[in-house]
Specification:
- By secondary structure, this protein is α/β, with parallel strands linked by helices.
- It has one domain (4-293): Ureohydrolase domain (Arginase, Chain A), CATH 3.40.800.10.
- It contains nine helices and nine strands.
- It has helices at residues 43-51, 83-99, 113-120, 150-157, 173-182, 189-192, 197-209, 241-251, 272-293; strands at 4-5, 23-28, 70-76, 103-108, 126-130, 162-168, 185-188, 214-219, 255-261.
- It has a nine-stranded mixed beta sheet, sandwiched between helices.
- Helix 1 links the parallel strand 2 and strand 3.
- The chain is globular.
Amino acid sequence: MTSFIPTKYPFGGFQAKIEKAEYFVFGAPLDETGSYRNGYKDAPRAIRKANANIETLNIFNHQDIAELLIYDAGDLNWEKENIKSKINTISKTTNNILRKNMYPIIIGGEHSILAANSKALPPKSTLVVLDAHADLRNEYEGNAYSHACAVKRAIMNNEFEKIIIFGLRAISIEEKKSIEALNTTIFWAKDILKQSISEIRDLGIKIAEESNAIFVSIDLDVFDPSVAPGVGNPEPMGLIPQQVFFFLNELAGKTIGMEISEYIPKYDVSEITSFLAARAIHTIITSHYFLTHSA
């Protein structure tokens, strides 16, 4: 049976009863395969704390998060489990949330949580990954569950209708070949940086219109290190918040769940990455609620 460690800072600050909740939050503090830095296990608490200290209104549509029925279970309790067991626990938890017609919000942890969540998603959905890296290696340092393999594992675990990577700017030769073979659509950071906000919004609208169900996976290194220093593998030439948030806001109505990953609080500067992460979650779920509950 899945057990959780309760949180002092339930996301949104307004804990609904589980039987009435539409949105289900849980922390997946996976911290096993960091290739440069470690400390992902501390991310869920820091992101929740940041969220407790931001305003509750969504600036795009003035939706108040207080109107959402959110249940935050806390963090998965799994000290004695190995990585394969932890991946299975995440997957079962997300699957159970979806079967109960709730919207899962998973706060990582390293990006390997995508390998877990992809198993739980309905087939023929669209996977939208925001990431500086392709994460398409078959294995890294002998580990097929490495965060460097997250997207590859997701593709192997599910028959997605579309796989989109937004903000890519760091890739290996092996991964370049995988992109060509796996029919993955890439929106390179170098091209996004030249686009206007209107063009980025139009791209989000187009993806939403062409998709029945979208799962969003945010690796926080999609942002430039100047605005998100607290990540596992910072990569220059990244995106700024305006580009990411306008894009996410247009996708939100078609999303069925989301995850956020790769935040390490001890490398953060003035906790700015945690507030960015909290606002990203806040933006998606309030926009989802607004777009799906408006008359």
